[in-house]
Write a structure and sequence with these properties.
The protein is built from twelve helices and eight strands. The radius of gyration is 22 Å and the shape is globular. A hairpin with a 2-residue loop joins strand 2 (137-141) and strand 3. It folds into three domains: 14-115, Acyl-CoA dehydrogenase/oxidase, N-terminal domain (Butyryl-Coa Dehydrogenase, subunit A, domain 1), CATH 1.10.540.10; 137-218, Butyryl-CoA Dehydrogenase, subunit A, domain 2 (Beta Barrel); 230-395, Butyryl-CoA Dehydrogenase, subunit A, domain 3 (Up-down Bundle). The protein starts with 13 loop residues before the first helix and ends in a 10-residue tail after the last helix. Helix 4 (65-78) packs antiparallel against helix 9 (281-317) and helix 8 (230-264) runs antiparallel to helix 9. The longest helix is centred in the C-terminal third of the chain and has 37 residues, at 281-317. A four-stranded mixed β-sheet has the order 1-4-5-8, with helices on one face. It has 405 residues and is α+β, with helices and mostly antiparallel strands.
Length: 405
């Protein structure tokens, strides 16, 4: 792994603003033509956006967790597919930064090199989602291992330099293998056929007798019999809150498209209270509600990010032995999803009320916002989050300790 790199972008910098703007410029055309955002991801590599959370003292962007989520929201406003592609990468970096010095050094070198990590965790089949039984296996091979298995929902891996693969080791324990995506036996297929998030590469990855060295096996903390360790509450809260941040970004994009559409309208209805669409108080109300939903969603996500930051810091210092802060972060991430899912789905329908029949024309592609939001909200159904929250407040039952909370 090379450590030769340029200086990473930093939060609030002109470089970061230009990067996000450049990615946003081609987003609508990519959606229209089905072009995959390989060029956008290459720009992210060049600007070392993946090192945004690496401390400045160690050569990184030095962003706080709140600033990271704010950046994710801005990037999702520009192109929610590209923002989603980085979910596995930022999660991988976050986890490794909290581990021992060796794990920290490795992930810092990786991030500073510009390399991107993709996600290869979920398997299709009868095993319940969020379980810890894997058909993907590591078997001994000399001083190392061979990796065999098939993963689905591998968001970002199509574009990534490495895949973070969850598998069972020869003893049956759950481990993570960090495997280069160009290694022999690794095949990533762009077969995601979802109605939304179409360009995220959320499809199939197969690992056919892939060689894995011992030092490519990374630390993983499965739950014990009684309670989830902080690592699972924190990794789950981060992974889930990231999706909610993507929805907040789409809400801002909805506001922008709603405003643009009313200014594009050359006529209004004969019975409208104003002859021009931008002056129509009814259309202004729709835009105002969409804008307010975006504001509330971002504020909610960032508040949950603050709770996550406090829990992360306590985990590093070892001052949260009873998991209170880790569990609180999980609670807030779950609550954020319940609220933002509702706001986002309503707003994605409201945009069609800022125009007549012309607003549904494919030239505008405004349906992409609803499709993306509905797809993001389906990652972990809101009903399960709301029920778990209700059981906690009614009965004091902790949230499940898994990557889904």
């Amino acid at each position: 792994m090379t450590t030769t790199h340029t200086e990473p972008v930093s939060y609030g910098s002109d470089r970061l603003a230009r990067l996000i703007a450049t990615i946003g410029e081609g987003a609508l055309e990519r959606e229209r033509t089905g072009e995959r955002p390989f060029a956008a991801v290459n720009l992210i590599r060049q600007e070392r956006l993946g090192a945004l959370r690496v401390p400045t003292a160690e050569g990184g962007g030095g962003a706080t967790l709140r600033e990271l989520f704010s950046t994710v929201i801005s990037l999702a406003t520009a192109d929610v597919n590209v923002a989603h592609i980085l979910r596995g990468h930022f999660s991988h970096v976050e986890e490794r930064l909290r581990l021992d010095e060796n794990a920290r050094r490795r992930v810092i070198d990786l991030a500073l090199s510009g390399a991107i990590v993709g996600n290869a965790s979920t398997e299709l089949g009868s095993t319940p989602a969020g379980g810890f039984t894997w058909k993907t296996k590591l078997t001994p091979d000399g001083d190392g291992f061979r990796l065999n298995g098939t993963k689905f929902f591998t968001t970002g891996t199509l574009y990534a330099d490495y895949a973070e693969v969850i598998a069972s080791d020869p003893a049956g324990a759950t481990v993570i293998a960090l495997v280069p995506t160009d290694r022999a036996g690794v095949t990533v297929v762009d077969d995601w056929d979802g109605m939304g998030q179409r360009a995220t590469g959320t499809g199939t990855a197969t690992f056919d007798d892939v060689t894995v060295a011992r030092d490519e096996i990374l630390q993983f903390a499965p739950p014990d019999a009684d309670t989830a360790p902080p690592a699972l509450y924190l990794s789950g809260a981060f992974f889930q809150l990231y999706v909610t941040a993507l929805e907040a970004g789409v809400l801002h994009a909805l506001r922008g498209d709603a405003v643009a559409h009313v200014h594009q309208r050359s006529r209004s209805f004969a019975w409208a209270p104003s002859p021009t669409a931008p002056d129509d108080p009814l259309l202004q109300r729709e835009i105002g509600e969409i804008a307010a939903a975006g504001f509330a969603a971002e504020a909610t996500v960032l508040a949950a990010a603050d709770a996550l930051a406090i829990a992360f810091d306590a985990d590093v210092r070892g001052t949260d032995p009873d998991l209170e802060l880790a569990h609180e972060a999980s609670l807030q991430a779950a609550a954020a999803k319940v609220v933002v899912d509702a706001l986002a789905q309503k707003a994605a329908s409201q945009i069609f009320d800022v125009g007549g029949a012309s607003v549904v024309r494919q030239a505008h592609l405004l349906d992409r916002h609803w499709r993306n939001i509905r797809t993001l909200a389906s990652h972990n159904p809101t009903s399960y989050k709301a029920q778990a929250l209700g059981e906690y407040y009614a009965r004091g039952t902790r949230l499940p300790g898994s990557g889904y909370f």
